[in-house]
Amino acid sequence: MYTCRGPGSIAPDPVLVEVPVRLASAAIVWKVNRMVNRHARGPWSAAALDRTFHALADPTRRSIVATLSAHDHTIGELAAPVPISLVAVSKHITVLERAGMLRRTRAGRAQLCTLLGQPLNDASGWLEHYRLFWAARVDSLERYLETEEK
Known about the structure:
By secondary structure, the chain is of the alpha+beta class. It has two domains: 1-41, no CATH class; 43-119, Winged helix-like DNA-binding domain superfamily/Winged helix DNA-binding domain (Arc Repressor Mutant, subunit A, Orthogonal Bundle). The chain has helices at 21-24, 34-39, 46-56, 59-68, 75-79, 86-98, 118-149, and strands spanning 2-5, 16-19, 30-31, 73-74, 102-107, 110-115. The strands form two sheets. It has a three-stranded antiparallel sheet with strand order 2-1-3. It has a three-stranded antiparallel sheet with strand order 4-6-5. Helix 3 runs antiparallel to helix 6 and helix 3 crosses helix 7 (118-149). The longest helix is centred in the last third of the chain and has 32 residues, at 118-149. The model is unreliable at 1-39 (pLDDT under 50).
């Protein structure tokens, strides 16, 4: 059995339901992480963060993002340094586009790609929130251990 949040739940705290293991592989299962639910207060959309981190999970897409950070490029220019087909690069660009990380515009026959920073900024803010959270926890543990030694 899994303890998970039901997809129809609208309660502020997760509603716990039991899902048989055999159904867990066939159904989408939301795992409850109480620390995240309690402390993740911010303007971050879970779905948007999921798309951003999914897009950044692939090394080819990270390389495309790094290339676009300098200036706009065509798909052909982005495909040149990677050892995959133009069609595969276009699919990677579609993933980045769906994550809101880049915009494609037509310039004649070419498609120009522009990096959009907001999803990266949101992910950075989310990570910073947890960096501060864990830094405070570790500092608290350090103070506790110092008082225990005395």
